[in-house]
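Discussion board: Methods & Data

I've been asked by a reviewer to show the raw model output for two of the constructs in my manuscript, not just the figures. I'm not sure how much to include, so I'm pasting the format here to get opinions. Each protein appears as its amino acid sequence followed by a line of discrete structure tokens. Is this the kind of thing reviewers expect to see in a supplement, or should I convert it first? Here is construct A:
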Amino acid sequence: MTGNEKILKTISAFATEGNIASIEPLGNGLINDTFIVRTKADDTPDYVLQRINTKIFTNVELLQHNIDTVTRHIRKKLEAEGIGDINRRVLQFLATESGRTYTQDEDGDCWRMSVYIPETQTLETVDTKSSYSAGLAFGNFESLLADLDEPLGETIPHFHDMELRAKQLADAVSEDRVGRLFDVSDEVSFIDSISNDMCRGEQLFREGLLPKRICHCDTKVNNMLVDANGNVLCIIDLDTVMPSFVFSDYGDFLRTAANSATEDESDIDRISFREDIFKSFTEGYIRSTRDFLTDIERNNLPYAVALFPYMQATRFLTDYLNGDVYYKTMFDEHNLVRTRNQLELLRQILERMPAIEKFIRNCGE
């Protein structure tokens, strides 16, 4: 069976409308294989077909349960609010004859289909306008799910668990599998020196002071669909939607968007913390979460700004010490470059922490 025949057979498992005109790759995602399925008639929808990466998402049943629960709940909330054009504001996944929203082919690959939302685009660049819109959109996403009473599972267990990441680094330091420890003593010492404070989220949770909420956990600007005018319609890429601290959605966006350079930049002088992006995203996020965010969550948002470059530096350094077994690398010190990049961003954030705290404290007042 050819690749195209396999895809056509997979599509036939779903309740689609119309006859297929073409199947083409869609986007540049690094996790799942995604295709746009065009139909021939103007009055039938096009579809998005995805092959789920089961090496990362090992429990597809749980994955789709989370996605189905979240999209169903958001649709119900939007309907209750009288929002128009709901099909452009929340993803629709197709069911198979069994009622599941995924199918497994004869090779063991798992697939799902959703209705393509036309006349939309994703953003790849970040400015103050798009950052503010992202803050509103991801905060509203959390707000819509704040009253969800159906339990969800962790699609990637301990994904943003800083205590686990710290232990993984400690193990990597202890084992020094490929003899790289002598190169990174300064980085290890710095990370270790603030480890206790960076594990604050888990500590507050154990004390019963910090709730877990349903979060997106991958808040990149290109995980929003916008219309021709740049208005956010829909949050996409829901694979990582799961219980987490709100720090995940707030801090992870700023880790990438508020860094003037990419995380692969080796020239430290080109790395700076973009306060304009921080302020615009924060304004949007606090505006859309004010109805449910607790005092302890809001008071610890400055911690979240620092947490995510710290966590990512920890993960990059762990992989470097383990011999580059997790992240794809292009050269021997790629993960070390990434580590130092994130630590430079972190240092700049820590230097600005009084101003960051003041802005968040006064935001929306």
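Construct B, same format:
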Amino acid sequence: MTIARKQQVSVDATPYYHCISRCVRRSFLCGFDPLTNRNYEHRREWVERKLYSLAQIYCIDICAYAIMSNHYHLVVHINRDKALALSDHEVVARWQHDHQLPVLIVRWLARELRTEAEIDACKSIIDMWRDRLWSLSWFMKEINFAISCQANKEDDCKGHFWEGRFRSQALLDDQALIAAMAYVDLNPLRAGVAETPESSDFTSIQARLQALGRQQEIAPCLHPFIRNPTNLDLDGIPMRLMDYIELVDWTARQYREDKASLCSTMPSILQRLNINRENWLEACAQLERKRCTVIGCLRNSAALKHALNRQRINLFRLDS
């Protein structure tokens, strides 16, 4: 039975989520279709461009992404505090980037409202938009609707382009966040369409590495890594970028050499995050296959169950 989205997403428990959207009947989103001899590679740019555009509008940060032939992955950070701190004018400015403003809001911007009823109605609309700016459902809806419209127009057809709703997995802690990001960034390697992380086209790891090549530590439109997780003034992923790159590279070598269970050395970041070796590699290889809706350490799952008012959750444990 399908679980309602509000019973899967709780920002109070965790702001981090792994999302997956697949094409209906596993048809081609991007890449080359050998059955029809048609090339849809250009659609990867559609998705990436839309992701970057929405990242400037929504208060949802993109931690990792991978755009594959018939699906895409996202790891996102829901920044509710940022949305709530926006002024009403900032909310309207963000919303009008991709949406037509109703006449009432246009009149409000021009300071033409005269009655309390009009002002209250205007305030209600802006509050609704503010809530949408940190809504994971609205963020994913915007991406999928835009891509489906473009694809259906190009294919000269109608109907569903996506397999219903997107799937989401709650990431309870730093261990789960980094495991999900590595899983997403290494998707092309596991699929055999790339040899190295840096050659994995349309992935966040490639974007971050290219930014480093341009002597930029922060890739545009991606949630940044921060060096000191105790610094409350910084908003980002609580680890060093170079530690993450080293970890992704090490994990990729295990896949290519098929020696994951035999490896006797661990990078220091694994020890610091208290990640179990076998669970880490299983997560980076089979995060979707487990059909879990929550990822993290057991000790952190109680808060999510309380926030969602649920007795049980389908947890993929990363601790021992």
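Answer (T.O., handling editor elsewhere):
This is acceptable in a supplement if you add a one-line summary per construct. For B, something like: The longest helix spans residues 136-155.
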